Write the structure tokens for this entry.
Amino acid sequence: MLRSIREQPKETPQPAPRQIFQERQRITGLPLYFQGYLSVRHSRCQEFRMYWTELRGTMLFFYDDKKAPTYSQKLDISALISATNVSPDENGSAQFILMLSNGELELKANDCEHGKEWKGFILTVTRLSVPPDESLLPGQLGRMHEVLQKEKKRRIMLNNCPSTSSNRKSPPSCSLTTIPACFYAVSRQEAIEMLEKNPSCGNLILRPSSDSKNYAITIRRELEAPHLKHYKVISKGTSYFVELERQVTLPSLQDVVNYFVTQTQGNLKPFVIQMHTAEDPVL
């Protein structure tokens, strides 16, 4: 006797949490520092969209679902210029804005506590210092200090790793923990070639100066024709002097890079070799 039994469609099994973590770790290749739901709106968009968000290294990864093993979008925040204060809206959510060299990114957390926590971790990994925010709890500050040490070690390993490009060597007489992502230990000519061959990666490189004791900025701008310029950055004590028509003094190398970005209203972008392929979706 034949049975008339309708087969039920087989559901695709969801990966276990440990499997999800391992898959994300494999895909991103970066350590997980903080995670949670965030509503995101880019300066070119009109509406917020909620993502399960992970802060890994100095990258934000956005997932359509908490259990999705692969991200749908990602954003490099290593060249963060500034972040606004966390402010509540009429719905009780907490909103703040990241000022990046290529535009603004609005982020919205469930409440002010989570908003300040997100901002604190973002500033910790991009500035390599825990922000002095009195509203953060001791436990939150403790986790940020742990993340800070992990990120410092990651930067050192990245610069010392023999499998990475030889262009990521140690900078002249300066702690690795203060070096912007656009620093490359290359000559003036090598910097020019990098900017010419990879325009999508940015147009500003920080490099050692010819005396190997100080630094230099090399920029390439497309005006009526490609325009190259070089600026010397002198390290003296805890300050850096940029040799312009009117000398500028700044407290860190990251501030030197940010100065060029802000003075050109974002027309100069730090040169950072992207960690994703051209097919990857990005914000």
User: Anything to note?
Assistant: Confidence is low (pLDDT under 50) at residues 1-12, 161-170, 173-177, 275-283. The chain has two domains: 17-157, 166-263.
